[in-house]
Design brief:
mainly alpha; 80% helix
Length: 371
């Protein structure tokens, strides 16, 4: 009896594995444009920076594990929130049990994994390439020009001087600092949410493709074209008067008083860079914080007023923080916004064509063929 039970369990597990593997292959095929794009990107940055593929593969596996863990936590938290605030079932435990059974029967895990892994490869390639920008591409050559551009764009006044009289209070700075640090969690929650919860395939693929393009075009191509360190490091690379010295003094005093994660991060990044073998990299232009924050607003605009307002407020605070925490020049944010909008719009038609192509191919397979 025990042996028969074990055989039944093994057979059930085997069928489940095959079912999820089949769903993984089908979903990977439907995501072919993103798969091709991320492999091309990884190969290009690897060749440009001399990154060994075994090292990138190892880092990819590490990031994939972390993303799976974060995805599990995110799905659990969002599922609990939906259960308690929206569904409100009589038995939450039974509700979750049914959801888990449904995910298993529909091979959802295979589909989710197929949507997730390209972004682990994207993150691995980007993270390994970013530290090489200053070493391989003319150092930080654009800081002086970007600082001057910001002054000209704001009528002869540095952007931070515009904002400091309004927001230059230690506790307001602390709010901006916390929001800026939360950007990573919000970004990954957005990614996991699109992968797991978005049922509109066209919108999901457009959102994920735009997200990928932002990291490739904004975070890589434009960063290489306009290498810069940012206001917090201006005095370390540019000789002469430092127009950001007063801002950095204020941030240091605030850090000494109440603590700022931005100051700690800037110090850690500089020590990493000064070591001669940087692992993280410094890049200001364009601002990835602002680009991704704007993209999340565009992609989630359809999901109701509260999410729209929350992400818009987050994006506004990210912008203020990018300037007032000394991370970015004003032009960094404006270029990031414009680029994110252009890429969001540009991804629409190709995504629609690809989904229509998949639907047409699927309907052709259903047409009876002559014997």
């Amino acid at each position: 009896m025990l042996l028969r039970s074990m055989e039944w369990t093994a057979g059930t597990a085997g069928r489940a594995v095959r079912q999820h593997a089949s769903a993984f292959r089908r979903e990977s095929s439907r995501n072919a444009p993103m798969v091709v794009l991320v492999f091309a990107y990884a190969a290009a940055v690897g060749a440009a920076a001399g990154i060994r593929m075994p090292s990138m593969a190892s880092y990819f596996v590490q990031i994939l594990r972390e993303l799976c863990l974060y995805g599990l936590v995110t799905v659990t938290v969002l599922g609990i929130a939906y259960c308690l605030l929206v569904a409100r079932p009589a038995s939450p435990i039974r509700y979750f049990a049914n959801a888990i059974v449904s995910a298993s029967r529909t091979a959802a895990l295979g589909r989710w994994a197929a949507r997730l892994w390209p972004f682990a490869l994207l993150a691995a390639a980007f993270s390994m390439f970013k530290p090489t920008i200053s070493a391989h591409f003319s150092g930080f050559a654009w800081d002086a020009q970007l600082a001057e551009l910001g002054r000209v764009m704001h009528f002869g006044i540095m952007p931070w001087r515009f904002l400091q009289p309004l927001f230059g209070h230690p506790w307001i700075t602390r709010v901006l600092d916390v929001n800026y640090a939360l950007w990573f969690a919000v970004m990954w929650m957005f990614l996991i949410g699109m992968i797991v919860f978005c049922r509109d395939e066209a919108h999901r693929q457009r959102s994920l493709m735009s997200f990928m393009l932002v990291w490739i075009v904004v975070g890589t191509c434009l960063a290489v074209a306009f290498p810069s360190a940012g206001p917090c490091y201006y005095g370390k690379f540019i000789a002469g008067p430092n127009p950001y010295a007063e801002l950095m003094d204020y941030l240091q005093r605030t850090h000494d008083s109440i603590g700022l994660m931005a100051v700690d991060a800037q110090t850690a990044l500089w020590n990493d860079y000064a070591s001669g073998q940087p692992r993280h990299g410094i890049s200001a232009m364009p601002s990835m914080h602002n680009a991704v924050a704007a993209l999340m607003v565009f992609a989630c605009w359809r999901y109701g007023i509260w999410l729209r307002l929350a992400l818009s407020l987050h994006a506004l605070l990210v912008f203020l923080g990018s300037i007032l925490l000394g991370w970015h020049y004003g032009a960094d944010a404006y270029v990031a916004w414009a680029s994110a909008f252009i890429l969001w719009r540009a991804a629409e038609l190709p995504t629609r064509w690809w989904i229509a192509h998949l639907d047409q191919r699927g309907s052709e397979r259903l047409i009876p063929q002559p014997a």
